Amino acid sequence: METDQATTAHVGIIGGGFCGLAAAYELGRRGIRATVLEQDAELGGLAGSFVVGGERLERFYHHWFTNDRHVMDLIDDLGAADQVLLRPTRTGMYYANRFHKLSTPLDLLRFSALPFPDRIRLGLLALRARRVRDWQTLEQRTAADWLLELGGERVYRVVWEPLLRGKFGAVAAEVSAVWIWNKLKLRGGSRGKGGAEQLAYFRGGFAALAERLAAAIAAQGGRVHTSAAVRGIEVADGRVTALDTAVGRIAVDAVIATPALPIVAELLAPHVPPDYLARLGRIRYLANLCVVLELDRSLSATYWLNVNDPGFPFVGVIEHTNFEPVDSYGGRHIVYLSKYLPEDDPLYRMDDAAVVDFTLGHLARMFPDLRPDWVRAAHVWRARFSQPIVERGYAGLIPPRNTPITGLKLATMAQIYPEDRGTNYAVREGRAAAAALAAELGAEPAAGAQRPASMA
């Protein structure tokens, strides 16, 4: 892993998710020393993990699509391409008390929840959506309006409206067409020769990749600290000079901040104008509640089950061990149930035991054979800032990479657009922010380095 001649610059990276780790790694490639500061005891951010059956497992379900080139390029750089696992997956939908397989084009033709002409409309909708090249033409349209135009009323009511409401709840009607367009484009590009969806995973989980990145950063002369929350920043003459952290004061020449915008706003508040803080606060977020069940048997053969039943409180049932083998987790069958919701929602504020009881009660309606003694363990994870609400005109809401403080740049999931959040685009944004900062610090581009991407 070669780097250019090291400069004297030192950059602090706030956040040890994949955006922050990728930024630190890219700086190291360009000869700039970076220090990553993660408040959690684990690296990975929303892709952080816990241990199940001796193997690390993501707290919130994660996978990659086969066309996620940014993370695949990073893995190639690390010499770990042989650790990427590609597997076909089975997807489906639960609607009107029935399970429908929806993994291939043939499954769509058999989708009995819609009359045959509407099945054709649904298939054509996906094809038409993927042909859109200029996403800006969709910026001022809602997802609901656009989907109704493409597929008609019945397709929207059966397929799309429940998914939008399951994902965004009370704000579903505000969601931009750009958001759903990107979802359709991304999933349509991750299929094998027979049309079945293929997904990717890293051997040992996302934690194994985070560890490889941390080791690479250390080999470049950088540092990675966990349990190291950043409590404040120091600014002199309009330039960031140091970070106040749980591991002490750290002098820096520049900073890349990767947490959610409300968290960044708290750090910047003493040093920036009120109108800038208002811009950071303009983007709204939903929280996420994720229940992870360890079962002694499988619920079904489906990996990803979209739930289009308005009475079911979770947007999906993801049986991870229909993707990654059950032997990886000591014979435990892993099921995720995910719900996006406001942080003041009563469910988000329930204690863990009550959340698990609530979950099992609803899951038993879908899987009547389910018994409490199937559950070997249950875990409840919460993320306050999980999903930016991508509303109409979102491009105009995104704050630029540069902040009013010289040397302090933003690289957050709220700035990933027109794509949606995810580790692939976190890697892209982290490396692009690092490349832009390195150029300002006078570093030479690394061999084969990415050029900075434009940012609204």
Blueprint (SSEs and pairs):
Layout: E1 10-14, H1 18-29, E2 33-37, E3 49-52, E4 55-58, E5 64-65, H2 69-77, E6 84-88, E7 91-95, E8 98-101, H3 105-109, H4 116-130, H5 143-151, H6 153-168, H7 177-188, E9 198-202, H8 206-219, E10 223-225, E11 230-236, E12 239-245, E13 248-251, E14 254-257, H9 261-268, H10 274-282, E15 285-295, E16 304-307, E17 316-319, E18 333-341, H11 346-349, H12 352-366, E19 375-388, E20 408-410, H13 423-440
Parallel strand pairs: 1-2, 1-14, 2-10, 7-16, 14-20
Antiparallel strand pairs: 3-4, 5-9, 6-9, 7-8, 11-12, 12-13, 15-18, 15-19, 16-17, 17-18
Helix pairs in contact: 1-8, 1-13, 2-13, 4-7, 5-6, 5-7
How does this structure look, described?
The chain is an alpha/beta fold and 456 residues long. It folds into three domains: 10-85 and 203-282 and 392-440, FAD/NAD(P)-binding domain (3-Layer(bba) Sandwich), CATH 3.50.50.60; 105-190, no CATH class; 285-388, Protoporphyrinogen oxidase, mitochondrial, domain 2 (Polyamine Oxidase, Chain A, domain 2, Alpha-Beta Complex), CATH 3.90.660. It contains 13 helices and 20 strands. It has helices at 18-29, 69-77, 105-109, 116-130, 143-151, 153-168, 177-188, 206-219, 261-268, 274-282, 346-349, 352-366, 423-440, and strands spanning 10-14, 33-37, 49-52, 55-58, 64-65, 84-88, 91-95, 98-101, 198-202, 223-225, 230-236, 239-245, 248-251, 254-257, 285-295, 304-307, 316-319, 333-341, 375-388, 408-410. The strands form five sheets. A seven-stranded mixed beta sheet has the order 8-7-16-17-18-15-19, with helices on both faces. Strands 10-2-1-14-20 form a five-stranded parallel beta sheet, covered by helices on one side. Strands 5-9-6 form a three-stranded antiparallel beta sheet. A hairpin with a 2-residue loop joins strand 12 (239-245) and strand 13 (248-251). The longest helix has 18 residues, at 423-440. The protein is globular and about 65 Å long.
